[in-house]
Amino acid sequence: MSLRTIKGLTKKEFIESCYELATKENPNWMMDDFKTDRFDDSWVWVTKASNSGFAVSKTGMRFLTKSLKIKPYIIEANPYRMLGSTIVKLDRYMPWPYRMEHTVSGVIFYLFSSEVAVWAAMYDNDINKLLDIYEQSTK
């Protein structure tokens, strides 16, 4: 799999630009939000490899929502429609950071892009259909 980028930025570059924004908002965000004076960009991602997708870890979710004050778009999905192939497609084709959490009643997706949220809404919040469209656009 090739290098994944978010609007032309590698994961590291993307998070570094996010650090700058968080620091402008609150110069003490690391200490206030994480009780540390050192924050590593690898903590944000589920998979740290530069050619893997943009799934964010619990720490990444906290960074985006608390330190950057981003309100994610939430989509609830049927867990029975979530196949292994969906996870693979998320990793390969989702163009922005996201978080997926399993709950007792289903799967919740947190999308950190209004653009992705609009596309999802166009497909009735069906993640599988959305990923099919992203997959087709890369061919």
Overview of this protein structure:
A three-stranded antiparallel sheet has the order 1-3-2. It folds into two domains: 11-67, no CATH class; 73-137, no CATH class. Helix 4 (84-93) packs across helix 6 (127-137). It has helices at residues 11-25, 29-34, 58-67, 84-93, 114-122, 127-137; strands spanning 73-77, 98-102, 107-111. The mean pLDDT is 90. It is mainly α. It is built from six helices and three strands, in the order H-H-H-E-H-E-E-H-H.
Tally the structural domains.
Answer: 2
Q: What Rg, in angstroms, do the CA atoms define?
A: 15 Å
State the low-pLDDT regions, or none. Answer: none
User: Percent helix among the residues?
Assistant: 40-55%
Distance between the termini: 14 Å
Tell me the fraction of residues in β-strands, as a range.
5-15%
Given the structure, what is the number of helices?
A: 6
